[in-house]
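FYI - complex with S-adenosylmethionine, inputs then prediction.
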Amino acid sequence: MKFTDSPVIELPVHDALLSIQQDNGSMHVGTSVWPCSLVLVKFAERWDPVKCAACDNPYADLLNFANKRGIELGAGCGVASMGLYLLGLHDVVVTDIAPVMPALKRNLKRNKPALKKTLKIAQFYWGNEEQIKLLKPPFDFVFATDVVYLEETVAPLVKAMEGLMADDGVVMLSYQLRSPEAHKLFWEMCHDVFDVERIPHEHLHPEYAYEETDIYVFRKKKKGQSS
Ligand SMILES: C[S@@+](CC[C@H](N)C(=O)[O-])C[C@H]1O[C@@H](n2cnc3c(N)ncnc32)[C@H](O)[C@@H]1O
């Protein structure tokens, strides 16, 4: 299930190199780097509208991060936030639960030379309405990687996505099936609330595409529209 057991994962993003320290031996899944996070960053790098200005880019609007506000849910070691920051998502809040904060902070600090900035972090438990308010939604871009694995956290996760995103915003989710129960509930709920688009596999980065990993884009259903 883990991408690699190596204590340090390196991820090139254009000319920069992220170096992420993981601890696979800890009690928390958030201290490991999961393949979904790498898949999302390399997909966004592949279709970066800045580098891909002259090419026929189906994701030019989606991945145009200029002046967008972003938030990551369940960031773990922060790979996706750091990668998307390097790709232009400069206003980003990186969130996770308290036990994961030391690993997140350590990796943000470790990558400060590449990022040239310390990214904003916040503790956020998906079901916590008070914390949602403190995060000051709406966000144009809500993203998460490999966060659907416990049935009991599915409803708060979907509510958090819905509550944080702008009406014309998007959720980008890099997904891998972890639990059949969580999977079933998650997709039932998502299809009720969102229009769901799956990125074709051949559009992922060829060196960072795994059979079992998919990227989805969610948009809020228009009022009066049902699933
Ligand atoms: C499998 S890890 C993925 C970490 C990272 N996104 C990655 O892909 O490397 C799942 C993450 O979701 C976070 N998480 C799980 N339940 C949560 C909850 N109820 N509220 C906030 N974060 C949660 C965990 O702390 C963990 O960091």
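The chain has one domain: 8-220. Residues 151-164 form the longest helix (14 residues).
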